[in-house]
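Recall the central idea of this unit: under ordinary conditions, the amino acid sequence of a chain determines the structure it adopts. In this exercise we apply that idea directly, starting from the sequence alone.
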Amino acid sequence: MRHVTKILVPAAGLALAATAAQAAAPARGAAPLWVVSPAEASCTTQLELVARSGAITPVTLTSDGQIVSLSFAKPDLPERAFLPIRVDRNRYSNLMIRKPDGVTGELVLSEETEAAMRKGQTLDVAWLGEEPASTSLAGSEQGLSDLRVCGAQIATQARARAQAEAQAKARAEQEAREQAVAQAQLEAARAQTAAADAQRQRLAEDAERQRRLEAQERQRQYAEAERRRLYEEAERRRQWEEDQSASYFPPQPRYPIYPQPGPGYRRW
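Accordingly, the structure predicted from this sequence is:
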């Protein structure tokens, strides 16, 4: 704000001095104060165009240090047009560009027009309203110079700010991408670890299942062998008993065997 104050004070002083010098001038508008105000990426100053009827039409001079433009509001503007203004009755045509809102036009002043306004006394615009309007250009040389200087500084600051914001955004996006990559790698590593753990678990379960199957098979084989052994042992015992029964002879008594008496034999 200190810099802006330095800009505004001499411009206002010049405007006040010019007002006294042009008190009897034919211009219908009061001498502007050339109050230069910083905007977002440029500086502006307001002018008031006054018609014969006393109607006032405000316009804005804007500069970013490279160009000076005159902004105004008017309905039904074409997208582009080449419109004239008059400085001390001399005609200067400039390119007008309609802004996106559809009712604001920006008249980009040529170097010739700006030079004429710096040295001129009166600005006239015939097409802005229902009747021509004009304003005094007293103090315009210093005012336009201050406007350009202020606009250049503000635009430089805006570009530096935009560049810093773009760099910060780029860094943030890069960090976000790196973080996303790192997170993806971490998740991939976790997934691989989980897959490896699951594979080991499946292998361990398969091994345990195989071990149980083998144990069951061994148990079955042992039971089958035991059953066959018992069966064969029983068969051998049965065969042995049969063999023993077939080859058995009762032992002969050691006392004499007498013949049995026949029928009708009476014993005493």
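Residues 1-29 have pLDDT under 50 and may be disordered.
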